[in-house]
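Hey L., structure's done. Input below.
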Amino acid sequence: MVKIQDPNSLIQAFRHLLCEEREKRKLSQSELAKKSGLSRQCIALFEGGQRVPTFFSLFSLARGLDMPVTRFVSLFMNKLEFYEQQDQKLLVADSKKAKWRL
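Output:
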């Protein structure tokens, strides 16, 4: 289970996953918007990290990407775990640098 240390990693994980999955399918933001029932502006805000998805949005995006919502959420959790691990590595590296400076 992933413990969310930083809300920013949650947003970063989601925006990267959405971009990757959309690009894998060679969909434009407009095409994904049509398939998902969301607006193109909404997709752009998600991908820009300026908007957090709602429960409804997750289902809509999964439908637009032609994947089961469980798969989409699973990929998201994997990506989130990766970002959380990267943040932890950076924190450890920063604390080691601080010790060397003392």
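Residues 69-101 form the longest helix (33 residues). The two ends are 36 Å apart (CA to CA).

-- N.
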